[in-house]
Design a protein that fits this description.
By secondary structure, this protein is α+β, with helices and mostly antiparallel strands. The chain is about 30% helix and about 25% strand. It is built from eight helices and 17 strands. The protein has helices at about 1-20, 45-55, 120-125, 195-205, 220-230, 255-265, 300-310, 315-325, and strands at about 30-35, 40, 60-65, 75, 85-95, 105-110, 135-140, 145-150, 155-160, 165-175, 180-185, 215, 235-240, 250-255, 270-275, 290, 295. It has an eight-stranded mixed β-sheet with strand order 4-3-5-6-7-8-9-10, with helices on both faces. Strands 12-11-13-17-15 form a five-stranded mixed β-sheet, sandwiched between helices. Strand 11 (about 180-185), helix 4 and strand 12 (about 215) form a beta-alpha-beta unit. Helix 1 (about 1-20) packs antiparallel against helix 2 (about 45-55). The longest helix is centred in the N-terminal third of the chain and has 19 residues, at about 1-20. The radius of gyration is 19 Å and the shape is globular. The two termini are about 35 Å apart.
């Protein structure tokens, strides 16, 4: 397992070096192609994806890899022991922010292989988050920091450029009991359901009793928003909306974003939900499945669920078929 993590940290150092020199090299901007999500790929998306695939593919104990940038999982055939680990990752979360020098990150989740076959199968990847062996992220900002958990608390390691190693800097991270921030894209507010609007007003101290009166902070790189709230307390949410009746499931990727960060939140005393229940209990149905996401202090996320139950029954009815896998998200 340590050998596997060393592959992730090696890839992180490669990505960090590219990010820091982005303005000096010809790696800013997009390339003329889209990923499986239909999004325009940034040059650094491709470089980060290649770094992770190459570093992890040569570890010897990785049987399957799945990336947000690839349509299908990558099976590692050259593995001598047929690989007992499955690694799922978002190579560069928030990569469109690179051009304006805003923090970005890498998100990863590690499952144990469960299929009986010689090589990995899709079932090895499509496991619920409560089966994770480990998960974490690397945030590339004023410093480069890796935050991860293997089920025994959350720990942060900061890259010391002088020695080229990640050193323990934040031991046993816990989300503060007193939250300070909420993180949401108010540009989408016109498409929010009534429950989400009321939840937002409650966070601002304008709705109901015992309102927390939080400050709003939103970067647009989920890793950066989550990292701040992990250390300072708060909630990040990207709900489903009413913009398209046939797409009530929001934007977040269950496998590449929600599972890993939900695992970290739970290990740090917090909670992650899709607005109906625990994100870690969701059974994935497709590799690129999307879900609404509320993550942070448990009491704040549970309050979001309460507002949704009270005001958003129409949205719940529209979303449940996607949650159960009766209809696939795209």
């Amino acid at each position: 397992f340590s050998w596997l993590l060393s592959g992730i940290t090696l890839a992180a150092k490669i990505i960090q070096s590219k990010v820091q020199r982005a303005g000096l090299n010809d790696i800013l901007g997009s390339i003329d192609q889209r990923n499986v999500q239909g999004e325009t790929q940034q040059k650094l998306d491709v470089l980060a994806n290649q770094a992770l695939l190459q570093c992890l593919g040569r570890r010897g104990n990785v049987g399957v890899m799945a990336s947000e940038e690839n349509e299908e999982p990558v099976v590692v055939h050259q593995d001598r022991c047929h690989g007992k680990y499955v690694v799922v990752f978002d190579p560069l979360d928030g990569s469109s922010n690179i051009d304006v020098n805003v923090s970005v990150g890498t998100i990863f989740a590690i499952h144990r292989k469960i299929s009986a076959g010689r090589h990995g199968a899709l079932e090895d990847v499509l496991q619920p988050g409560n089966r994770l062996a480990a998960a974490g992220y690397i945030v590339y900002g004023s410093s480069t920091m890796m935050v991860y958990s293997a089920g025994l608390g959350v720990h942060g390691f900061t890259l010391d450029p002088g020695v080229g190693e990640f050193l323990l800097s934040h031991e046993n991270i816990r989300i503060p009991d007193e939250p300070r921030y909420y993180s949401a894209n108010h540009g989408n507010e016109r498409d929010w359901t009534e429950g989400i609007r009321r939840f937002t007003r409650w966070l601002q101290g304008l709705e109901g009793d015992a309102a927390p009166t939080l400050s709003h902070r939103y970067v647009g790189s989920m890793v950066a928003d989550f990292h701040r709230n992990l250390l300072r307390g708060g909630v990040f949410y990207y709900p489903g909306d009413q913009r398209e009746a046939n797409k009530p499931y929001g934007k977040m990727r269950l496998m590449f974003e929600a599972q890993a960060l939900g695992f970290l939140a739970s290990q740090a005393g917090g909670y992650a939900s899709d607005g109906i229940g625990d994100i870690l209990e969701l059974q994935p149905h497709t590799l690129h499945q999307r879900v609404p996401l509320f993550i942070g202090n448990r009491d704040l996320v549970e309050q979001a669920e309460a507002f949704i139950r009270e005001y958003d029954q129409e949205w719940i009815d529209a979303y449940l078929p996607f949650r159960r896998g009766a209809v696939a998200t795209v």
